[in-house]
Amino acid sequence: MRTEVLTYEADGLSMQSELFVNGDAGPRPGILVFPEAFGLGDHARSRARRLAEQGYAALACDLHGGGQVIDDLPTVMGLLEPLRSDPPRIRARAGGGLAALTARPEVDSRRIAATAFCVGGTTARERAPDGADIAAAAGFHSGLATVAPQDAANIKGKILVCIGADDPGIPPEQRAAFEQEMRNGKVDWQMHLYGGVVHSFTNPEADRKGMPDYLRYDARADARSWAAMNGLFDELF
Q1: Residue 86 pLDDT more than 90?
Q2: Spatial CA neighbour of 1 closest among 53, 45, 60
């Protein structure tokens, strides 16, 4: 396994993302991995490594600049809240990662997908409506709200979202609005719901936050959602 830090500018920040490539085969599909709200930590890196082991070139993307991981939830939300109402800034951060990944010789730039967690899913979700040539975006416990639902008409790739049915941060009305948005945009989309599951269900470290009604790991939902993502990527690549 080879790893390399890729530094690039996006949204006025110096991003430090980490590329994972396994073996010396020729160009292979590239996967962007957008992290949870706290930033580029072990969770996103471990997922990028798993994807590289499966034969992809995976870029675990910086979120806050400088490769920062911010553990304090109120601080993180304060940084992210201005982005929620400003899709161009979110798209700029995601676009920087996309440009860095597709420039690599190990990557087939015609075969790119994104996978994302929590607010990272929002990042991927805002990149897809920007008309980017992303074959698919798979979001795990990712926010579904957007201030520009009409932009779904620009989505070129397939969309998969995997959500805890009891996630307090993604209520049924938000899911319903997302469904309507996808229909209006004539998008090829899927939504998988997992009963009894809340937020951050893919992250084994979620329980350490001490917020079990909001953040809680669930091994079955983790495995099922990863299999759903792999099924989509196998269909495409």
Answers
A1: no
A2: 53
